[in-house]
Amino acid sequence: MDSPLRRPTAGLRRTLGWAQLALTAAVVLGAVLVGHLVQGQVDARTAGADRPSATGTAVLPEVAATAPMVGSPVSSPSVTEGGAVGDGALAALGTLLVGWTLVASAGTIGRRRLDDRESERWAVEWARVEPVWSGRVSGDF
């Protein structure tokens, strides 16, 4: 039995809350995956110069003697001082921030639309009840 004080959109609000929770869990899992992938790529780039090729010789980048150097050479394939783990953590943190911002924004927009719907319904009901409530008109509503 529905309570007369229960909002008509209470079920939608509950569903929106569960959807936000599920999306937040998906964002966390996605951030872990992104962090792991970035860490693996940095590890592969770091080990790439020392890894033997199919013929058994070390794979080293060849630099032509006549090629001009542009800028300084990269000392490490890592973006952070923390190496592969630092890069993975940075990528995971960025993914979390962007994902949580999107989930929070979607939840805020959804709740705002529900609030607008409730306000419109309340205004219609108040226009019907207010004259009787204020005593300007007597009778049933």
UniProtKB/TrEMBL annotation:
<feature type="transmembrane region" description="Helical">
    <location>
        <begin position="89"/>
        <end position="109"/>
    </location>
</feature>
<protein>
    <recommendedName>
        <fullName>Tryptophan-associated transmembrane protein</fullName>
    </recommendedName>
</protein>
<keyword id="KW-1133">Transmembrane helix</keyword>
<keyword id="KW-0472">Membrane</keyword>
<keyword id="KW-0812">Transmembrane</keyword>
<feature type="transmembrane region" description="Helical">
    <location>
        <begin position="21"/>
        <end position="38"/>
    </location>
</feature>
